[in-house]
Amino acid sequence: MTAGLLILGGTAEAADLAGILDGIQGLRVVSSLAGRTASPRLPPGECRIGGFGGESGLADYLRREAVTMVVDATHPFARRMGWTAAHACAALGLPWLRLQRPAWVAGPTDRWTEVDDWNEAVPILRRLSRRAFLALGRQELEPFAGLDDLWFLLRFAEEAPPRPAPARFALVADRGPFTPAGERALLLAHGIDTIVCRNSGGAAARAKLAAAAELGLPVIMRRRPPRPAGPSVQSAQEAAAWVRAQFSA
Ligand code: NAP
After folding, report:
1. How far, in Å, is the centroid of ligand 1 from the Cα of 136?
2. What are the strands of the beta sheet with 131-135, ordered from one edge?
């Protein structure tokens, strides 16, 4: 009998998991991407792209494709998909696992102010900053678009213009990986006095925080949104062990 694994992806950890499990006899692995970027890095093995159509659409997909287990490896700031997956799996009685890289923890030289949403960040930014690096997603610019007195550095994987665009900004297109020395040079070149970012976790994205600490810059750090309660691991290797255990159970 073939087991079926659906990996809800869009992260490096999801691609790593697909790579580890690629080619295992008797296990069909499908990676799913939302289709947000025009040229995504495709994970190894079978892949599908696009939303499922909410909980009922996902449940239909899981039944139709004979999926027997799901790993939610979506980004820590992807708010909806994990809840949809947890509910659909509960309804169908399927085992489900959350794979999420560890959150960053502030060190003694970090100057973080933590917030739960961007509306909380805006008055802090007004008080602290003239030139800020907004290290966040394209779809999150709206709360900052009216801050006409500030200048912003934006960095996205693709060059398409931001919408809504702040009055004054520069856009850098770069997917990384980033290093502390490179981030330090970027912050100095643009005269950045504050960084605004999300607690995404991961070594490459932490480089900007190391540079900020070195330069003594404040960081406005958004905490992660809540996730459904359930089994959770922090690495692709641990998730692969869970999959193997389900597979052989
Ligand atoms: P979201 O709020 O959780 O998802 C919004 C909708 O997009 C979901 O309801 C679902 O549509 C669809 N979707 C999300 N992930 C999917 C997947 N892996 N496969 C198929 N459909 C998916 O997430 P988001 O913030 O829009 O992010 C979209 C994707 O980009 C996620 O997969 C995430 O891993 C990746 N990503 C997000 C961020 C971020 O900062 N948010 C950063 C890096 C990568 P239906 O309801 O129609 O099924």
Report:
1. 15
2. 111-115, 218-222, 194-198, 131-135, 151-156, 169-173
| Pair 22, 86: CB distance under 8 Å | no
Question: Which domains are assigned to the chain?
Answer: 3-102+226-248 (3.40.50.720), 111-222 (3.40.50)
59-95: pLDDT as tens digits: 999 999 999 999 999 999 999 999 999 999 999 999 9
Distance (Å, whole) CA 97 – CA 95: 7
Please indicate whether residue 53, judged by its CB atom, sits closer than 6 Å to ligand 1: yes
What is the pLDDT, as a whole number, of residue 64? 98
| H/E segment holding residue 169 | strand 169-173
Which segments in the chain show pLDDT lower than 50?
none
pLDDT, position 128? 94
- For the residues of 12-43, what is the DSSP string, one character each? HHHHHHHHHHTT-TTEEEEEEE---SSS--PP
Kindly state if the Cβ of 80 falls inside 6 Å of ligand 1: yes
Q: Tell me: the pLDDT tens digits for 41-56? A: 899 999 999 999 999 9
**242 Cα distance to chain centroid:** 22
225: CB partners within 8 A, 6+ apart: 76, 77, 79
- The rounded distance, in Å, linking the Cα atoms of 112 and 93 is 41
